[in-house]
Structures are given as C-alpha cells and as structure tokens.
Amino acid sequence: MILKTDCKHFPGDKPCKPNKQENKKCDSCEYYSPINFKILIIKLDAVGDVLRTTSILHAIKLKYPNSHITWLTKHSAKDIFINNNLVDNIFLFESYDLAAKLSIQEYDLLIHPDASPVSSSLASIIKAKVKKGFLMNHLGQVAPADEDAVEWLEMGAFDEFKKKNKKTYQQIIHELAGLEYKKGEIIINLTQNEIDFKNTFIKTNNLSRFKKIIGLNTGASKRWQLKQWRFEGFKELISKLQQKEDIGILLFGGENELERNNQLVKLFPNVVNTGSKNSLREFFSLMDIPDIIVTGDTLALHAAAALKKKVICYFGPTSSAEIEDYGRIKKIYPAMECLVCYKPECDFVPNCMDLISSDMIYQSIV
Predict the structure, then answer these.
(1) Domain boundaries 35-176, corresponding CATH code
(2) Exposed site from 28, 56, 121, 215, fewest CB < 10 Å?
(3) pTM of the predicted model, to two decimals?
(4) Which residues of 152-175 are buried (b: 16+ CB within 10 A; e: fewer)?
C-alpha cells in the first residue's frame, strides 16, 4: 500500500488536497507530514473568548513546532478558524460523532483553559499524556489539572482576586498552558473573497471620500448588558465627529442592535450602517475598514485587535486589566471603586457606564 495514513493531510474518505490539486501520491509527495505530537485545545464559547484564545497558537508552535493541533469548540465559533493554518482540525461540540472520535484518539497534550463544568467533564475523560487547565474531579466539581491553573480558577471564584488582577487574559492562559508569553496576536486571516467583500462595501458606499473612518460598535453581549454604552452617548459622539467633514462613521452591531442602529441612522443620515445580519466572517471583513474602532468589552474588541486596528474600548463591570492592548488599544473607564464587579445589573445611579462621557471617547479619537 502506498498510502501514508499517518499524514496530517490524509482525510480518509476522499482525496487529500495535494492529490486533488496537484495529483500527488503518497510515495512521492513532498507535502507528507506525519502526525507525531497531537494537541487538543478545548474552548467551546463564547465566540469572543474563543477568538482571543487563538493567541496561544503562536507559542504552541514555537514550543512544539511539528505538532498537530485539533480545536474542540461549538458550531457558533467554528468560522473563526477559516484560513487559520495553525489549526489542523476542528471538532464540533454539537457533532453526532464527537463521542466516538474522542473515545478512540489519544493526545500528547490537552489544553483546557475554561473552568466550565461541561467542558471540564470532557477534558477529564479524553485520553492525553499531559493535561493543562481544568478537569472534573470524582465529586463532579471543576478542579485545576495542576498548580498552573490555580490562579485563574481562584479569580473566577473570588471577585476580590479578579479586581486585584493585573495580568492580561492572554498572559494568564499562556501560563496556565505552560507556554512562554510573548504577546502573541489574536488570529483572523481574511480570505481573498472576504477582502473582495470589504472592498465592494467601500466602493458601494463611496467610503474612499473620507480621510479617516471611525467604526462604532454599539452593542454588547446578552450576558453583560452593563457593558453597553448608553444610546445618548453615541448620539453625542456622532454629533461631535460629524463636525469634521473628512471623517466617515460606520455602525456595527448584531440583531440585538438593529433598532438602536436604525435610530442612529435616522438621526444622522450620513452615518453608514454595516447591517445587523452579517455572518461572522462578513462582520470580520467589514471591521477591517475603519481606522479606529470604538467598542465595549465584547467580540468586536477581540476582532479589532486581531485585525490590528486602533481601538478605543470602554469598560465598567468587566476587567480592563485582562485586555492585552498590543500597543493599539486605549482603555476608558470612570473613576469608581466598584469597577470589575461582573454584575449583570446595578443599583447605582449614575452607574459606571453612565459616567463615561462622549467627550472622553472623542478626545481619545482625536
């Protein structure tokens, strides 16, 4: 048999890409790459957290250059890995054959940085020589796999530790995984079709007439509604920005921001709405247009960081210290003792987000 079934390019049920594209066969194929060191990363959700966790891939490849990396995630996050050559395989949590795949395979290294009971149970039953991060113990409780994971687990358990923390999320998960932290970038690699989609949007909306373009992401996650800046703040900010004729303004948001963004366009007809029903990859493509992006601590922040944009991010209930700024992110937050509370609701009037003025953001843009 001339087949080399240990090659990372071998799919089993169809011709591999080298064969399909160049008629290569195993006995004389220069693309042959045997799977020697297998790594499984488990990070299911949320989408923004999965995206920023891709920052560990650079350090993994430095430490294990010939490794074969599989990432287990949810369907909602799978498109993050399009055009990402550092990840060899994607397993989906919702897949019908996941249990069969995980029961037969064995890994050299498992990395699970999420203290979730659901994914911790998976991390516990998967066969791996070394496990980093979190597992589930015999009591059904989440537990650290080793000492490297204790700090992150304690921060999740005690608000006081979370508030005092000065490390970025990226540094924390690198240390948890036993990797050297060199400020590896979050990864989004746009395809040529996605670049064409972006350029078509620029042409259709005549955006090239502007000297600078500011992107305003007006939403936040459903879980943390207090991360969302107030509607009046966006009105005031747009009014200030539109005093400069050479500045274009793009609105970003999902279906939850549909009404909010439509109201802003009615008030400011020159503002361009990028739409609320874009796919994840279309959203990434359009986020690549602005020179500066204004956003809260949400998916748009991590996407903008991955696209190497200049970013202004406002914070209230979540930790600004955990955000790696990469030298491109300005952080705005009010002077309040109760910041980093991670509360979904607040009794303070005004609350932390109310105290972020439009002038604070405008001056940062300038």
Answers:
(1) 3.40.50.2000
(2) 28
(3) 0.93
(4) bbebeeeeeebbebebbbbebbbb
